[in-house]
Amino acid sequence: MARYPATREGAVQLLTLANTLRSANDRIGDCGYRLQRQICGLSASSNSEVFSKIEAIAYDTTRKSFECGEPIERVADKLSQLSDTIIDIIDSNQTTGARTLSSGLAAGVRNAVAAGANKAYASEIAARMSSMPSGTARLYGTYGKRCRISTVLEPREAAYFSPNENAVHVNQADDLNNPLGKCNTFFHETGHQIDWIAGHDTGGQTPISYQMGMATTIREDYENAVQGIMRTNSCSRDAAERALRIELCRAPDAANCVSDVFGGVSHNKVTGKWGHDTSYWVGSQSDINLATEAFAEISADLACSNTSHTDFTRKWMPKTFELYERIVRSIT
């Protein structure tokens, strides 16, 4: 702790610090009061559960902030923003507010706010969390507390998951205007993180999707798609691959997952709007990349309730989608 000289200047410094602490403490107390008042509107059975979850989130946010040496004014800002977001969640849907907050998914909002996400982004993440299909909610609920959002990037910086840091870096400005749905990239990158964590939980060093054979299954789905077109159209393999590419281009966003991983299998001979550079699909990591991209893309589309996207993936990659669901059941 800093020491202040026993002088008039030291006394002024101490008084200024005391006033700052008092002001920040008042703001933090006000956050707690507003949250308590809001929680009273929920059913009695959920009150204690919701409050304990909020208390844990607030405590963890405060502890991490002080450990990083942040000034108390900044901590108060974070808690104020966090409480506003939580109140918005409860206000928007009284019936699901308790379920949303009492799940591990609340950690995603906490982490995003702690990393500097603005209220609009944190609220949008929370909205997606509250409307997920049950299997996806179970996935993010199981692993949400272990996901870490390290930084919120500046506009035009690409989001990514860093295995070395076990942390996700997101671009909130781009993600709020994502053509695949608001916050799709948030759930895509945390999908990568969950895949990585689950794989390491087995004692392995690769994502769980790869361990469970998803790359092989994607290749089977690709071959079945091409062979099916060849039989239907009585055409050559090259003609079938051209026809498949046209299918991907006809539904550019709905085909995002299929476009990406079929591009991986074919070294971008068969791809649509979405994909990676060909260099990403060659070398010793190519099958790992195939598996983990499919896992992340399916997770994000389910989290964002993109039914046209998941329907497209089920149509062209039925075995992969079935394996994805089996993986989720096995790790949750």
Outline of this structure?
The chain is mainly alpha-helical and 332 residues long.
Taken as a percent bin, the fraction of beta residues is under 5%
Instruction: Give the spatial strand order of the biggest sheet.
Output: 1-3-2
Give the number of DSSP strands.
3
> What does the overall shape look like?
elongated
The structure class reads mainly alpha
Order of helices and strands: HHHHHHHEEEHHHHHHHHH
Comma- or semicolon-separated keywords:
2 domains, 16 helices, 332 residues, 3% strand, mainly alpha, three-stranded mixed sheet, 69% helix, elongated, 3 strands
Description of the structure:
This protein has 332 residues and is mainly alpha-helical. The protein has 2 domains: 92 residues; 200 residues, no CATH class. The chain is built from 16 helices and 3 strands. Strands 1-3-2 form a 3-stranded mixed β-sheet. Strand 2 and strand 3 form a beta hairpin. About 4% of the residues have low confidence.
Task: Compile the SSE list and pairings.
Blueprint: H1 8-39, H2 44-67, H3 72-92, H4 94-102, H5 106-114, H6 119-130, H7 134-143, E1 149-152, E2 160-162, E3 167-170, H8 172-175, H9 184-201, H10 208-211, H11 214-233, H12 237-250, H13 256-265, H14 286-303, H15 307-316, H16 318-331
Parallel strand pairs: 1-3
Antiparallel strand pairs: 2-3
Helix pairs in contact: 1-3, 2-3, 2-4, 2-5, 3-4, 3-5, 3-6, 5-6, 7-16, 9-14, 11-12, 11-14, 11-16, 13-14, 15-16
